[in-house]
Amino acid sequence: MTHGQSSSAKAPAAVIDGKAVAAEITDKVAAETGRLIAAGGVAPGLAVVLVGDDAASQVYVGAKGRKAKELGFHSVQHTLPLSTSEAEVLAIVDQLNRDPSIHGILVQLPLPRHIDTSKVIEAIDPAKDVDGFHPINVGRLAIGERDRALVSCTPAGCLLLIQRVLGGNLAGKDALVIGRSNIVGKPMAQLLLQESCTVTVAHSRSRDLPALARKADIIVAAVGRPEMVRGDWVKPGAVIIDVGMNRIPAPERGEGKTRLVGDVAYAEAAAIASAITPVPGGVGPMTIAMLMANTLVAACRAAGQPEPTF
Ligand SMILES: Nc1nc2c(c(=O)[nH]1)N[C@@H](CN(C=O)c1ccc(C(=O)N[C@@H](CCC(=O)O)C(=O)O)cc1)CN2
């Protein structure tokens, strides 16, 4: 963690360095992968399925494949054209479900509109669902069986970042999750609830969001609206986790240029908060690190070996 600058008298907010924490996680994954292989288990196998030609998805899938190889995993990628039918995607998922060398299956989202995302997610063997999106894994998390679930990577990474700042005991903290998506908002709320936080989930129909935010010790913003959370929404000393990744025009950088901003007005919020994630370099890198951790956990479970905790 490093400290940013603030014009107020208050100590500057600690900048939560997601890249550094992600590197610690992946170092541990590499070490534990070596241990699993030495114990007679196979190398963790990760299969990534990409349908279509979305440029950002190509970048993320490439990063996942490279990281998997770097950690000593068996890594396979299925790159399919936009014209691929739902039945063809389901057939590949079925083949990967049966392949004993594959412990983790990930279908990169978003899928093209002609493919039913829920149908594809539900076709993945829950034991190989390293994204943690399958209803069985979502359900296990919801009923407090996190130990048997695979948990969605981004919220799991956010929780680790919060714990790095506040320590292991979050009991009694007021947490506000802004956004109710299945991938981030809802599992984030479940994870914080299981840490005995008092959790509020806000969304587009919530009344007086600034007032809800001003009461929160922890804010997780995952709403997809550039710089929506303003500095005067923030309780002094709050911890802010910004999941937003919004590309906005940046004419100051030249014609047609863009820049990446989160859901939080960073400079304003950093002047009030005690700790904050930057965008980029905060939550994003944790997503891929937690994917690697989930794949290792799935491989340990398949091999009947003890699983590491992260
Ligand atoms: N099947 C899945 N699809 C998608 C997921 C997912 O977890 N599973 N999440 C996102 C995309 N994503 C990984 O897939 C992802 C997005 C962003 C980052 C990241 O590190 N971002 C950088 C900034 C990158 C930039 O400059 O554009 C950062 O925040 O520092 C990692 C992974 C949707 N699809």
UniProtKB/TrEMBL annotation:
Chemical reaction(s) catalysed: (6R)-5,10-methylene-5,6,7,8-tetrahydrofolate + NADP(+) = (6R)-5,10-methenyltetrahydrofolate + NADPH; (6R)-5,10-methenyltetrahydrofolate + H2O = (6R)-10-formyltetrahydrofolate + H(+)
Record's keyword terms, sorted: Amino-acid biosynthesis, Histidine biosynthesis, Hydrolase, Methionine biosynthesis, Multifunctional enzyme, NADP, One-carbon metabolism, Oxidoreductase, Purine biosynthesis
EC number per UniProt: 1.5.1.5, 3.5.4.9
GO biological process: L-histidine biosynthetic process; methionine biosynthetic process; purine nucleotide biosynthetic process; tetrahydrofolate interconversion
GO terms of molecular function: methenyltetrahydrofolate cyclohydrolase activity; methylenetetrahydrofolate dehydrogenase (NADP+) activity
Function noted in UniProt: Catalyzes the oxidation of 5,10-methylenetetrahydrofolate to 5,10-methenyltetrahydrofolate and then the hydrolysis of 5,10-methenyltetrahydrofolate to 10-formyltetrahydrofolate.
Name of this chain's protein: Bifunctional protein FolD
Gene: folD
